[in-house]
Structures are given as C-alpha cells and as structure tokens.
C-alpha cells in the first residue's frame, strides 16, 4: 500500500526547505548539538532578526518577546539528527505515532587505500543516520531524510503488523541488513 501523496509532499517540502549542514559540529567551540524541538525550530525554521526587522515591526517584535517567542533565528539547516528530529516533531504534531530510531548502513567500497585521498580515508565506513518509524493506518513505515539525489528524498517501507516492537525491529534488521536501535529513555526505577 502506497503512503498518501500528502506524505510524499510533506517530506519533499521538508528536504527542499531544510538544508543538510554540519557546521555546528565542525566550527562551534563546543561541537555539540541540541535536539530540543524549540532549539531546532530556532536554528532551522525561524529566520534571522535582520530578515524580520523593518521600520513597522517594532510592535510585532515586542509582542513576540512578551509572548516568549524570540524573533531571532538562524534558518541554517542541520545535521541528520537535527533535521530528522524536527521532522519527527512535525509528524507528531500532525497526529502520527513516531518512533525515532538510529540506523547504520555501510558505504559503497572506495578505491584501494593506496589510491584513496586523505579526505576519503577520514570518512566513516558506517555512518549513523537518524530516521523515524511512522505508524500510519496500522502500517509501519520507515522514513529517512538524508542528503543525496532528489529521487532519494525518503524511503517508505510498509511492514505487516507484528505482535511487538521487538518483532518489528528484528524484521527490519533481517530485511535490510541494517542495525536499528530504538531510542529509548533511561529505564524507570521503582521507588
């Protein structure tokens, strides 16, 4: 069963509007990322203050600040975990059940080490990507937003219903040869 066309449009718009970039990892003093939805919205969606400022919008800025909304943003894009976390937040806000997962997959083999450049040698062999498992009408679909060719904007995989989450994850591991690890919070402790 194909996902609804609106689903494809949502992911296409997300990829077209949100650039993939990793500047914070390489050029910030702390080299850390926040995956807090408010931080991601400020970094990825909200435009910089200069884009908002005009002679007539002082009242708008004051009203936004009074409401706890900061009109200054970056609108820069983000790293895979950032853009996928933002997409998961949007999907949850639209009423979808979303399970965020980490997935690793092997890169295609490169030229022999003697011919590989220093830059190639520095690349990881199994990058970790973030993605979402989305429950839509009792069908489980895997979505990933990643950089690449325009026709590789996302992947949708329909899984039959499984009795448990572990059975779903095991099926994904088997079918795709990838390592999926559901992100779960710390175990709860009885007091």
TrEMBL record:
GO terms for molecular function: acetyltransferase activity. Pfam families: Acetyltransf_2. InterPro entries: Arylamine_N-AcTrfase, Papain-like_cys_pep_sf. PANTHER family: ARYLAMINE N-ACETYLTRANSFERASE 4-RELATED (PTHR11786:SF0), N-HYDROXYARYLAMINE O-ACETYLTRANSFERASE (PTHR11786). Belongs to the arylamine N-acetyltransferase family. This is Arylamine N-acetyltransferase.
